[in-house]
Write a structure and sequence with these properties.
mainly alpha, single chain
Length: about 90
């Protein structure tokens, strides 16, 4: 069985490609395959972890009772103060 071959040809006009190319260039020779494998596996693990977290939060929120709180106007700015501020602007 032959080894699969992967070719990476970045478009250096693309900022993300340039950044990725710069990172890959800093990896020592002989370690690039290991680096790429780890980066790909990390991306896969992060996607899986994110899906698990989203599913867990969604399930937990199903059991939470929520209610909308109506404002009692306590945080409103009184009309007198608005009038005063408007007079300062003139």
């Amino acid at each position: 069985m032959s080894r699969p071959v992967f070719s990476f040809r970045p478009n250096l006009e693309n900022a993300a490609h340039r950044k990725a190319w710069g990172i890959l260039q800093r990896v020592p020779e002989g370690q690039k395959n290991h680096f790429l494998v780890q980066a790909i596996l990390k991306e896969g693990n992060e996607a899986t972890l994110e899906a698990v977290i989203r599913r867990t939060v969604r399930e937990e929120l199903k059991g939470v009772k929520t209610e909308q709180i109506k404002s009692d106007g306590a945080g409103d700015i009184p009309d007198q103060m608005l009038d005063f501020l408007s007079q300062m602007d003139d």
